[in-house]
Amino acid sequence: MSKRFTGSFTQQEPIPDDAIEAALRVLRSGRLHRYNVEQDEVAEAALLEQEFADLTGARYCLAVASGGYALTCALRALLPQPGDKVLTNAFTLAPVPGAIAAAGCVPVFVEVTDALVIDLEHLEAMIAQSGAKILMLSHMRGHICDMDRLMAICDSANVIVIEDCAHTMGGHWAGVVSGRHGRVACYSTQTYKHLNSGEGGLMISDDADLMARATILSGSYMLYERHLASPPSSAFDGIRLETPNCSGRMDNLRAAILRPQLRKLADQCAAWNARYHVVEDGLRNVPGLKVIERPEAEDFVGSSFQFLLPDFGPDAIAGLMARCLARGVELKWFGGAEPTAFTSRYTSWQYAPAQSLPQTDRVLDGLMDMRLPLTFSVVDCALIASIIREEVLAERS
Ligand SMILES: *Cc1c(COP(=O)(O)O)cnc(C)c1O
Looking at the domain that runs over 17-261, which CATH code has it been given? Predict the structure, then answer.
């Protein structure tokens, strides 16, 4: 009898007890709205912002309703004109081009490489071709490109970088916190990311004007002085009446459950990487299967695992997915023509002008993906890798 895996790829860990206690305190107070505070009380949302700013070394931090909201808000705060082109990765999640569209801008996609990062040569070509002045850079599935080269390219072309760090919270490039290269960075605290508040987002930047606008946009009313990690009130003077309130605040309940989780982030990242490396070791040297080689400078967070089946073709991939699923291993495929669940590709985002990206098509056609929730043990991860290994070999024979 072949072994079967019985864990759930969508089951995250429970919310830790100290976070539940913090949530109960907020619930008992009734003051869930971030600006509903007693005399001298500091809101959980404001404390979370201060702690996240401290953790990342950013001057300012703003907590909002979701990662996608943070991306839209960051882009709007850069004051693009309606119809402006914004560059982004062709390989990313739907909320990224969605954020560009929500800000009234037009996504322009850049090719992905076999290492699953943005293609820097194509980026240079697309900067020149499109004239775009903003790049929304998505560190999709935690893969970080050569950030020194990327910033050199963008700086020399006066392209402002917004970093989408939904999968790199806790990661670094050459020792620099992921999110500290661009003008502004956005993180998600949605259930499947590195902190879990159901929904939620965080934005960091050192740019006082941008963060003042983002704070008003997020729905601060004229209560922005209740923030701890926001720019001085002088930064708001010129913009507070001309910036719309596009309500998208984080509440104290979610902030309360995030603060204890933030203190454990480094340990959680180490736990993800232990699992990642077990899967990686188990899938090395399987004929037909390519693991993604990670650069030395990339200190990533292995909360999900990707591999390539470059020569399989759609039928063999469908066969492999069915065989793995029958043994409890749920693989996702980025090559499907129709979007399924969370997985879609750039051709599915038809509100964006059509583009032909042959390199991205080739990579996505062979790209497999799975989550590695921390409810999996390292033993589970070894079993998952051995199941995939056996089924890849079986599918090829
Ligand atoms: C989840 C995710 C987002 C959006 O985050 P939400 O909090 O779900 O809005 C953005 N980019 C990437 C790459 C993501 O995975």
Answer: 3.40.640.10
